[in-house]
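Human
Can I borrow your eye for a moment on a structure tokenisation matter? Give me a protein, with the fold worked out from its sequence. Write it directly below this note and I will take it from there.

Assistant
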Amino acid sequence: MSNRRPRSIRSPKPLDAVRLGDLALAYVARFATSRAKLMRYLTRKIRESEWVGDDDPMTSCEAVAARMERLGFVDDRQYAAMRGAAMTRRGLGARRVRAQLRVDGIAEDDAGDAMDNAALAAAHSALGFARRRRLGPYAAAVVADPATREKQVAAFVRAGHAPGLARRILAIAPGDEDALAALDAEMGGD
């Protein structure tokens, strides 16, 4: 038995260039998105529906995405900055930010400022990650087990942080405010 929802009994509305533009407008009104994500959405809608337009569906898809970009509803550079800042605030590192921006279809030149900001905020972001996960200086007790310490380092690495930075943060004893302040000052924190 499958856990998937059964498809609707109604057949999907036929698509043409006008309806595709309406779908794109509704999508960008609802979600902050990149051009590549918008293209994936429109391509999926074309696959799921019957195309009744006179022109090629992919050409119409490109034209709609270009129009959304021209109107300013889709801006990859602004999307990258917004997405990168949000991920950094959540405690994710620069490598994780770069990976997500690639998945979102952001070109390297559009991701440049977002990546620079993520690199500058690396220590602050890693400390935020440690705080949320109650690791290192935010733990209830010192972790003496090397295997547990390596698991904690691995969690930092999966979050996109450098292993060296993770080890430095995990070496700070719980409640050692002086060591935390020294690390923050050394890394250029505010």
